[in-house]
């Protein structure tokens, strides 16, 4: 969400790099670029890979209280050529984001001492922020919402009463495929498939929602066993190296979701930074697979969990509370 917070090119830079690397791109409901502009950017990129490898365009959604608003967003997505939706189900309540409070994080940044010092330490980002148009959440309404209105809007639209009936309603409204994002239990994964979701996205929302929640990687093997080999599984949460991607695939994932690595690259260098992040992860994954004796993704899946050893954490693994 809010990619233009990191660089003025925002979602466009990530969409372009995803297209070049043959990766599916998932646009947030809280994007700072319109779906039409994202689709146009992807279409304009000259593919560097086999033209037959056309990754799906994915639109991430919530079930808002205002169903007309959601239906309007789905209509925009379909018109822009998006083929899949991903319903996020682990954000019907806001988690206690202690790290945000410690870092004085606000949208948009406010001129506190901590924020000013941070801006001075990153002059390139600060110059980009100060010399480009303010970002807004382009998909919330026809009239672009200013960033500072996000919190009040989101609080008003969150639906703690969300149920499986709501999830089925959403699947029925969309003509394409649907994924469900935020699953960490095998029973929920099985229920999601029964409701009509084609893909299960194993995620604990980056560990930012419920303290001590099951790690996505720990939840993955049981969910794969419950669903069998044919249901596509995506994993996110803590994927920051190519070796992390290899671990997820070995444990049953068909793909991973990337957040921080891509956004760090975006904030540092815009388009070039996102491309660099993808290049690093791609090289690290190939190297890890080579060292494991896996010449392809199917090879890595066949090797499976036997290539991994889980060790007990020690003091050297912890840099202090909330260090992640």
Could you describe the 3D structure shown?
This protein is of the alpha/beta class. It is built from 14 helices and nine strands. It has helices at 10-20, 35-44, 67-79, 98-102, 113-121, 123-131, 150-157, 164-173, 186-195, 216-227, 242-250, 260-269, 271-292, 297-303, and strands at residues 25-27, 57-61, 84-88, 136-137, 145-146, 177-183, 199-202, 233-235, 255-256. The protein has a seven-stranded parallel beta sheet. A two-stranded antiparallel ribbon has the order 4-5. Helix 1 (10-20) packs parallel to helix 2, helix 9 (186-195) crosses helix 10 (216-227) and helix 12 packs across helix 13. Mean pLDDT is 88; it is low at 320-324.
A few lines on this structure:
By secondary structure, the chain is α/β, with parallel strands linked by helices. It has helices spanning 10-20, 35-44, 67-79, 98-102, 113-121, 123-131, 150-157, 164-173, 186-195, 216-227, 242-250, 260-269, 271-292, 297-303; strands at 25-27, 57-61, 84-88, 136-137, 145-146, 177-183, 199-202, 233-235, 255-256.
Please tell me what the overall shape is. Answer: globular
Low-confidence stretches: 320-324
Strand order of the largest sheet: 1-2-3-6-7-8-9
* Largest sheet features: 7 strands, parallel
Report strand %.
Answer: 5-15%
How many helices?
Answer: 14
Mean pLDDT value: 88
Distance between the first and last residues' Cα: 20 Å
Rounded to the nearest angstrom, the radius of gyration is: 20 Å
Give the helix/strand class.
alpha/beta
Helix content: 40-55%
Number of DSSP strands?
A: 9
In N-to-C order, the SSE pattern is HEHEHEHHHEEHHEHEHEHEHHH
């Amino acid at each position: 969400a809010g990619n233009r917070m990191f660089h003025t090119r925002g979602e466009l830079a990530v969409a372009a790099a995803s297209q070049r690397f043959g990766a599916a791109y998932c646009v947030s409901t809280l994007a700072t670029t319109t779906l039409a502009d994202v689709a146009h950017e992807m279409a304009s990129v000259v593919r560097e890979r086999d033209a037959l490898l056309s990754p799906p365009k994915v639109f991430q959604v919530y079930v808002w209280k205002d169903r007309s608003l959601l239906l309007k967003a789905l209509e925009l997505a379909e018109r822009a050529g998006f083929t899949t939706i991903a319903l996020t189900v682990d954000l019907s309540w806001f988690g206690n984001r202690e790290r945000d409070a410690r870092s004085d994080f606000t949208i948009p940044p406010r001129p506190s001492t901590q924020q000013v010092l941070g801006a001075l330490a990153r002059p390139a980002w600060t110059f980009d922020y100060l010399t480009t148009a303010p970002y807004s959440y382009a998909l919330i309404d026809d009239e672009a919402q200013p960033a500072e209105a996000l919190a009040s809007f989101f609080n008003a639209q969150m639906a703690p009463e969300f149920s499986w009936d709501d999830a089925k309603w959403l699947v029925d409204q969309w003509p394409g495929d649907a994924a469900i994002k935020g699953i960490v239990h095998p029973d929920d994964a099985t229920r999601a498939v029964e409701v009509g979701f084609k893909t299960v996205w194993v995620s604990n929302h980056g560990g930012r929602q419920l303290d001590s929640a099951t790690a996505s990687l720990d939840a993955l093997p049981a969910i794969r066993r419950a669903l069998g080999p044919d249901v596509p599984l995506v994993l996110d949460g803590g994927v920051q190296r190519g070796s992390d991607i290899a671990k997820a695939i070995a444990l049953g994932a068909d793909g991973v979701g990337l957040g921080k690595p891509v956004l760090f690259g975006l904030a540092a260098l815009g388009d070039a930074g996102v491309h660099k992040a993808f290049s690093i992860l791609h090289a690290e994954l190939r190297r890890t697979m080579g060292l494991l004796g896996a010449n392809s993704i199917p090879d890595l899946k066949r090797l499976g969990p036997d290539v991994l050893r889980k060790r007990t954490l020690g003091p050297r693994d912890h840099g202090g509370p909330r260090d992640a």
